[in-house]
Design goal:
Blueprint lengths: L16 H14 L7 H6 L10 E2 L2 E2 L6 E6 L1 H5 L3 H11 L2 E8 L3 H7 L9 H8 L5 E7 L3 H9 L12 H5 L8 E3 L3 H11 L13 H5 L3
Antiparallel strand pairs: 1-2, 3-5, 3-6, 4-5
Amino acid sequence: MFATRAAPAVRASRMPLAVVAATAVAGASLYTQPSVHLDQAVNTAGADAVSRPTTIAGTFTTPSERSFIMIKPDGVNRQIVGKIISRFEERGYKLVAIKSVLPSTELAREHYSDLASKPFFGSLIKYLTSGTPVIAMVWEGKDVIRQGRNMVGATNPLQALPGSIRGDYAVSVGRNIIHASDGFESATKEIGLWFGEKEIASYTPAAWDQVMADN
Ligand code: IDP
Ligand code: MG
């Protein structure tokens, strides 16, 4: 749970200004927001609002749900940023925040903190901070966390189905183009880490009600 974790050791002096601001704002929200595990959230999806906490990732399973999606340096380097953004737009999701970031080592390490013990962690961080920017985004809409994972495809492109982003554009697990939050708790952490509340827009696309409606 975020409330019991130590604050990230992020040194502001080595971070881009936007990230400094995001981290400063996020620091407060990230570790004080109620968190919920994905399984728990799935089980309570039909229950009342009290059991569906709202964080910077919105409210799980509702149109306010948000996911952190990041085009990694290989996606930027291969100049397919527009194609990837189009997929989320065409699906019906709403882009509520976007920025190009040269992540600091500290930011990259915090983002992937759950993988710190993996043998590839060092090279993953080196790659993310190699000097080619990442495109950090927040997308909003019903089920965007789980649907975002479907659209991105399996971690290893060998298992990623054709039609998914990794299944269409990637070959190697170490160069799999894109990141997507894997649950409500990680979306809450990641959006709070990369963005401040004030960087996230509130607006209603023309077709929003059509796309989000249930009978
Ligand atoms: P995800 O990106 O699908 O959520 P994670 O297991 O969270 O997958 O791993 C984060 C990233 O670390 C992957 O997207 C990939 O770039 C890299 N990675 C994961 N497993 C390996 C591996 O076995 N070798 C090299 N890189 C890996
Ligand atoms: Mg992951």
